[in-house]
Specification:
The chain is built from nine helices and 13 strands. By secondary structure, the chain is an alpha/beta fold. It has two domains: 126 residues, Rossmann fold (3-Layer(aba) Sandwich); 150 residues, LpxI C-terminal catalytic domain (Cytidine Deaminase, domain 2, 3-Layer(aba) Sandwich). The strands form three sheets. Strands 6-13-11-9-7-8 form a six-stranded mixed sheet, with helices on both faces. Strands 3-2-1-4-5 form a five-stranded parallel sheet, with helices on both faces. The protein has a two-stranded parallel ribbon with strand order 10-12. Strand 1, helix 1 and strand 2 form a beta-alpha-beta unit. The radius of gyration is 20 Å and the shape is globular.
Length: 301
Amino acid sequence: MAGAAGEHWTGRVPAGYQPDLAIICGYGSLPLEIAQGAVEAGRHPYMIGIEGEAEKRIRAFPGEIISWGQLGRLFRLLRDRGIKEAVFAGGIHRRPEVSALKLDWGGVKALPQVLIFMLGGDNTVLSGTIKLFEKHGISVVGAHQIAPQLLAAAGTMVGRKPGAKDFLNIRRAFSACKAVGHLDIGQAAIAEGGRVVAVEAAEGTDEMLARVVRMRKVGRMPEEGKNGVLVKTMKPGQDDRADLPAIGPRTVAAAAKAGLKGIALEAGHSIILEREKTLEAARSAGLYLYGVEAGELGDDG
């Protein structure tokens, strides 16, 4: 039965189930991993899936599906179920156009505030959303607070420890991540041969890695990569309650296809999705996976 610490979800809602945590679900496995972590901690998750984004698998847990613009319905659901805490989880394939939203009355009343933060980058949108939830008496917590086992540890997690040439690239990419993150652009960068060769923008990590593949094909980068690394970090000043940088098995496959030799994550501030599958994928691909701390990078970090 859910509710006792250490339990696993069985797919059946036990009698007397009282939700105490809303998980606002985008796409990907993160919502489910947080839900399972919540159950193991004795919590009672309630999945609120975003229509067109959330995966069908979340229906294994109690919950509802809402569309963009149904803010009134969303906060009514939370109020009626006595839920005072929420966590944002998963990605968004496409940010909705405000003009296309089918707003309910709650959405109409919140529209002036929504318009202000929807014009910014991802960090601005998420910070604004957190404030909107808090305005309605809902505390927003981070995924790492519910399921700390998802966080990347410091040091070598898979493969060899990065050498001097690897660390040169890690330092360069780490600095690039923080620079573009300061502008609320992206959370990832790739360095190879002592220089930054790609930074993430709105297209996302997978498309950035695909760009490296194309650069190798046209000769802009060596066909056989040497010491190339993908680095992902938090943005400076980012609220860690939302959108922590993350990797999963697909990221590892794309990094290997791009000819990279490793992946470095900001330790304690990044998430590893489907951990066992991701670690095994890195082993199979011959990639190192390293949790880096800013203090070990010197002035460049």
